Amino acid sequence: MVLVALRHQVERELVRYAARSRCGPTITSETFNDRVQEWETKVRSDKGWKMLYAALNLDSQPERSAMKTLRLLTNCFKHAVTLIPDHKLLDHLKLARKTPEPLIVGYAPLPESKRFQKALAGSIGLPEDANYCTIADAFIDQAAEFLDKVSKDDLAKVKGKRVRLDQFVY
Fold first, then answer.
1. Distance of CA 140 to the CA centre of its chain
2. Can you give the residue range of the structural domain that contains 85?
């Protein structure tokens, strides 16, 4: 679940970066908030993430393998009722869709499969015996590195009023 939260935080940061992209050196806080809402709507569409990657010039470089792994993994955690890895994730990790051993028909659910855990660790440069805490730490580091690569020099600075806490309903 930590990795699902991490992936969603990466997505939120990318939306905020996109809201500050291609709009000049500065924008008001109101414009920034409007653009965040626009991007939140865009990314829910079929081609929204492709548009976001283009806006941030991330489409010219292939998606970092760790970020792709994280995206595919979180999609399995969110959508696969059985938590059994889907074909996209297995292919990405270069795991056979069906195990080669006789009488084994597939993989255990994500948290229980040792073979999957080994492949997941190896995909981000960790030893095969890395536990899930170590794997999660590595994904956190990879996510921070990925977000740092987004060119912050090209993003507008947000100017304007600070939000006051008394403006919120409790």
1. 10
2. 65-147
